[in-house]
Amino acid sequence: MDKAVVLKIKRIVILLGLFSIVFFVLSCKKEIKQIEVSSLKDTENRENKETNEENDSVVEFPKTGNKITDFVLAPYEIQYQEEGLLDDDGLKDVVIVLQDKNDNTSSRPTLVLIKQPQGGYKLQEISWVAIGPEYTADDYKIYNDESVSISNKEIIFSMYGMGATGNKETLYKFINNELILIEV
Prior knowledge:
Elements: H1 3-27, E1 49-52, E2 57-60, E3 64-65, E4 76-84, E5 93-100, E6 110-115, E7 121-127, E8 145-151, E9 154-160, E10 167-175, E11 178-183
Antiparallel strand pairs: 1-2, 3-7, 4-5, 5-6, 6-7, 8-9, 9-10, 10-11
């Protein structure tokens, strides 16, 4: 073969190799979706009214109650409940995650109830995003195992799943009378 032909073939092979590498790198680009991190705290102008954006219904949870079940409104039931110390008063506070009895694909409200010295509970926080829906619209359970725990004035949400779902753990800490997301 002629040297000029061999040189052209080498250039073509190198260009194809570079093109393949660039294509591979661009196709493997991982896009990271940024999320706003905030506390579980309600905005003051919404008080204790929360909107479940999936079905645009407004749920108004009571601000106080004598029993934990006083905060469980229809169509919800308690799915997870955990007691522990969140503030410095030595009284056991409660976190409950509610599930809609009629729709396991809807958002699950999480309520943080602070035990009062005179008895009963005060609704301190409400979140519709602390723990997501249990099932997808295709009736696929998102996480195999979920738990809520309270330790060292922190609320820990732990979710464990197989495959692409993976594992997720979020920690909220009670700081200045407000629960703040401290770790994901």
